[in-house]
Amino acid sequence: MRYPDGGGLTAKQRARREQVRFEAAELFAQGVTPPQVARRLRVSRKSAYAWHARWRDGGAEALRSKGPSGRPSRMKPEWRAWLAAELDKGPAAHGWTEDQRWTLARVATVIARRFHVRFSQAQTWRILREMGWTVQVPVRRAAERDEEAVATWIKETWPRVERR
Prior knowledge:
Elements: H1 11-29, H2 34-41, H3 45-58, H4 77-89, H5 104-115, H6 121-130, H7 147-163
Helix pairs in contact: 1-2, 1-3, 2-3, 5-6
């Protein structure tokens, strides 16, 4: 089965699907046929027949979730806490002084320097997304910007220019 956005299921989604399978197991125990289970639970007949075969061979326990698919991430949970703290410090704390933007390449470099594990940009993005980070478009403002002068210009100069 393919999932949108290239990802699998969250823990909450896996638990919900597992609950549906357990409901199917209860119905099978009552003698309900797989096509009827499929209609009642609004799932495909193919799924209902597969669940029925697993239930028949191993009972309700055979329908328990096996957890997330694929290899476990090399990014350990304790590393994520450290990475979040380092990202909050900003790129300048890690030697990038020319601009104050985190890029995927920079984040991957910070991880590699600390933990000696290289992640691709796609993997780095997946890690950041799991940590709750989102894409940020930088505000295009000069570092030398004088907020007081801008406020004065907006209050005094702009009304005069706008009237023309």
